[in-house]
Write a structure and sequence with these properties.
With 155 residues, the protein is of the alpha+beta class. The protein contains 6 helices and 8 strands, in the order ββαββααββαββαα.
Length: 155
């Protein structure tokens, strides 16, 4: 499993190409040649860039869902809507398909942010707003998600 670290700004060119930061390229060096999958995020107006190995792990989980349960089938359809395979070119750029650029509202200024094993790709203004909005509730969220784990309890 990959554990990515960092948040980096870059610019999208007129064709929708983004230069992957040298720090991310270094962290992804062992999987760059395998390609990536890019998709719409589930909860935010951004994109998610999955290294192929991480995408395959996600698909293994999704393939366990019973497709004869309507909610599962609907989820699979929505989760994979607009999914595309992309490669990093020789100069370290990735081409973001136009429909996904439109979905994320990407203009020119872009933020690429690690999210454990994937990279989120945001329009910079939308990213800043999401971070500002989340800051208000982060302490409560952190306590709810991380504060009550059994591992941390002292017997």
């Amino acid at each position: 499993m990959i554990n990515l670290i960092g948040t980096y700004e870059c610019k999208a060119d007129a064709k929708g190409r983004l230069m992957i930061s040298s720090a991310f390229k270094k962290q992804l060096s062992s999987v760059l040649q395998d390609g990536f999958v890019i998709k719409r995020a589930v909860f935010q107006p951004c994109l998610e860039l999955y290294p192929m190995a991480e995408w395959n792990l996600m698909m293994a989980k999704i393939n366990k869902l019973n497709r004869f349960v309507k909610k599962n089938n609907d989820f699979i359809r929505r989760f994979t809507a607009g999914v595309k395979m992309v490669d990093v070119d020789a100069t370290g750029r990735v081409l973001i398909p136009k429909d996904l650029i439109d979905f994320a509202g990407i203009q020119k200024q872009v933020v690429m942010s690690s999210s454990v094993n994937i990279i989120e790709i945001w329009d910079k203004d939308k990213y800043e707003k999401a971070i500002d909005d989340a800051a208000l509730d982060f302490a409560d969220l952190a306590e709810e998600v991380m504060g009550n784990t059994e591992e941390d309890e002292i017997s």
